[in-house]
Amino acid sequence: MDSSARRQLEVYLDRLRFQRRVSAHTSDAYARDLQQLVDFCAERDISAWVALQSADLRDHVAHRHRNGLGSRSLQRALSAIRGFLDFLIRQGELEHNPAAGLRAPKAPKTLPKLLDVDQMIGLLEAPVDDVLELRDVAMWELLYSSGLRLTELTSLDLVDLDLPGGSLLVRQGKGRKSRHIPVGKFASKALERWLLVRKQIIATAEPALFLSRRGDRIAQRTVQARLERWQKKQGIPEHLHPHVLRHSFASHLLESSGDLRAVQELLGHANLSTTQVYTHLDFQRLASVYDRTHPRARASKKSKHYPE
To answer: N or C: which terminus of the chain has fewer CB atoms within 10 Å of its end residue's CB?
Structure first.
């Protein structure tokens, strides 16, 4: 790409960061995706954005798909490309968007992994050995109690927590939507224990609820690493990601209440269809119980009354 084309891309990325104020995670992902497009154009000797055609973009998406990029990541990449080319149209640099009609391959529908209730209790009630493990258990309790996303957990400040009222305010939800959600009694007790020792890590006015060992806001990667460490310590063979605790919260709550709308609100889902995946999980569990226990479902056992 020529210098003018690269400048246009830099202007667009700056606009995302400083005017539209998208999250750092999103802006970094868009920057990586658009750099991939720049590299592709360089290989094709495409020096200006006006020369980019729909056929080129189809080849680009197909190439990334062959190299192992999943459907969701391809959808994000196409969103980044469409957004950038729409920006060029508004700037008068392009007349139409060659990415407008492109679609990524559909992702196969997979059900989220989760822990059963006994596994969750074992994870949360294991004894702790130090201050950092007190912090960790408070995080696991809160993820499971309130169904938080990882980014929401690490963005929490002390002022967002209302322990007497048994609630917290999520200010940095997906789509920058805030919501109030309840905090269960076990999570509240774990948070009380953490707050009593939190001052041992830092004495300054750091606003973050959860701190690293250095005394600053805990990073998402640190939370992931600590959960993996805790999982191995408790002898749980499955790899655990913090999102598994959120999925377990949603599935267990829906199983107990049957209230899909309430689960949607607590999770902060914009669309009910996103929450409905947990109804499939619940049905899958019920179907498994049925297959194991119903006399007419146990196909492996031959009927004594009816001949073949």
So the answer is: C
pLDDT in tens, 164-173: 988 888 886 6
Q: Where are the domains of the chain?
A: 3-90, 117-291
Residue 80: CB partners within 8 Å, gap ≥ 6? Answer: 29, 30, 33, 34
Active-site hit among 58, 65, 171, 243: 243
Beta strand ranges found along the chain (DSSP E): 161-162, 167-170, 179-182
* Nearest by Cα to 225 from 144, 125, 172, 154: 154
Can 103 be counted among the known catalytic residues? no
In the residue annotation, 149 being an active-site residue is answered as yes
Condensed to tens digits (0 to 9), the pLDDT of residues 71-86 reads: 888 889 999 999 999 9
pLDDT of residue 246: 83
Chain segment 35-74, per-residue pLDDT in tens: 999 999 999 999 999 999 999 999 998 888 888 888 888 8
Give the chain's length: 308
Q: Which residue is catalytic, options 58, 82, 171, 174?
A: 174
Q: Per-residue DSSP letters for 230-278?
A: HHHHTT--S---HHHHHHHHHHHHHHHH--HHHHHHHHT-SSHHHHTHH
- Cα–Cα dist 246/278, whole Å: 11
Q: Is 305 a catalytic residue?
A: no
The domain defined by 3-90 folds into DNA polymerase; domain 1 (1.10.150)
- The single residue of 60, 135, 149, 247 carrying the catalytic annotation is 149
